[in-house]
Specification:
Helix 5 crosses helix 7. Helix content is 52%, strand content 20%. Strand 9 and strand 10 form a beta hairpin. It has helices at 5-33, 96-125, 140-143, 163-171, 219-246, 257-271, 276-298, 306-319, 325-356; strands spanning 38-54, 57-72, 127-129, 134-135, 151-155, 158-159, 178-184, 187-193, 196-198, 203-205, 208-209, 213-215. It has 9 helices and 12 strands. The chain is an alpha+beta fold and 357 residues long.
Length: 357
């Protein structure tokens, strides 16, 4: 296990801490705006190491720096999902729109944080335009007529802004035909090709090499390409989740906190020899991926996640009355147990990969 693991763990805690704080602050700010009382704002879980009170809210730093929570009036775990006598500032007493906004605000804060980080990265490092540097001899791309210097603009109808999006589409292809639109000398052309399987690497390739064309953005372009960065990480997350439904998913594709620390360590090991600026930008890129990933995963319609709570609120909007609190509580409890079991399995798998391989 190369690299400095202590530094990597500290970096992970800092990155994850900022992401969690931004997520929970999204819930907190929207709840306050909607007149919902926030009893606790927790960073981490487990025993409280330090706490302070501001207004009606206890801000708590917990022993284990993984996750966080905003505990709203009426949704305190010790009192169940509300009760017969709810105060006017309880979560269930707020208008439906305020409750939906409060639930969604956490993931939205993750996306906003991701965009802010992406702006910093693009401002300092520029971006990678999807310009082909080299077409491999005898490849599917060459046979389709694609040449060095062509600018790829669309793949399977999806707009392409970054060269990494081309690499992503190639990496996530499992032999399906690809419709590629590119520009050459100002003229747009569209071809269809089928990536070829490489036995050695056990994956399909289009047949192009390189890392795109470096482009230094001006002040205004930073905002546009910062958005493209977020769009890229959103695409990465959705395509990764999509492997679950296409039969290309395995347990090894999951990574828990231990796995993420290993990624941080690998990034630190690779980037640190090139100086502090490269290291910082590499970590910020990783932070963008993590915050976007957490934002999207939290919106999945699964019990105990924000998306699961959102489902119950949407059901309430359709049927005109809420699902009985105790029934919703049972569903979320089952979801929490399932997530804890999954975390144990994933952590065991992460440790097995590190110490067994």
């Amino acid at each position: 296990m190369g690299g400095n693991w202590l530094i990597s763990i500290i970096i992970f805690i800092l990155i994850f801490g900022v992401i969690v704080i931004s997520h929970e602050f999204g819930h907190y700010a929207m709840a306050k705006r909607g007149g919902i009382r926030v009893n606790e704002f927790d960073i981490g879980f487990g025993p409280t190491l330090y706490s302070w009170k501001r207004g009606e809210t206890d801000f708590c730093l917990k022993a284990f720096p993984l996750g966080g929570a905003c505990i709203f009036e009426g949704l305190d775990p010790e009192s169940g999902q509300g009760g017969d006598m709810l105060s006017s500032d309880a979560f269930q007493s707020a208008p439906l729109g305020s409750r939906i906004a409060t639930v969604v605000a956490g993931p939205m804060a993750n996306f906003i944080l991701g965009y802010v980080i992406a702006l910093i990265v693009v401002a300092f490092t520029g971006t990678d335009l999807p310009v082909i540097q080299k077409v491999m001899e005898g490849s599917a791309a060459q046979e389709a007529g694609i040449e060095d210097g062509d600018l790829i603009t669309r793949i399977n109808g999806s707009r392409i802004h970054l060269y990494r999006e081309v690499s992503l589409e190639s990496f996530m292809n499992y032999g399906e035909p690809m419709e590629i639109t590119y520009e050459r000398d100002g003229e747009s052309r569209t071809v269809t090709l089928t990536p070829r399987y490489n036995e050695e690497d056990q994956r399909y390739y289009i047949g192009i090499q390189g890392a795109g064309e470096f482009y230094k953005c001006n002040a205004l372009e930073v905002f546009r390409y910062g958005f493209y960065e977020v769009e890229y990480w959103v695409r990465v997350t959705f395509k990764s989740l999509g492997t679950i439904f296409t039969g290309h998913f395995s347990l090894d594709d999951l990574a828990g906190p231990v796995g993420v620390v290993e990624v941080v360590n690998d990034t630190y090991t690779e980037a640190s020899p090139y100086g502090p600026m490269v290291l910082i930008m590499s970590m910020l890129n990783l932070a963008t991926l993590l915050t976007i990933n957490i934002g999207i995963v939290n919106l999945l319609p699964l019990p105990a996640l924000d998306g699961g709570r959102l489902v119950f609120l949407l059901i309430e909007a359709v049927r005109g009355k809420p699902v009985p609190p105790e029934k919703e509580g049972y569903v979320h409890l089952a979801g929490i147990i399932a997530l804890l079991l999954l975390m144990v399995v994933v952590m065991f798998n992460d440790l097995s990969k590190i110490f067994g391989g």
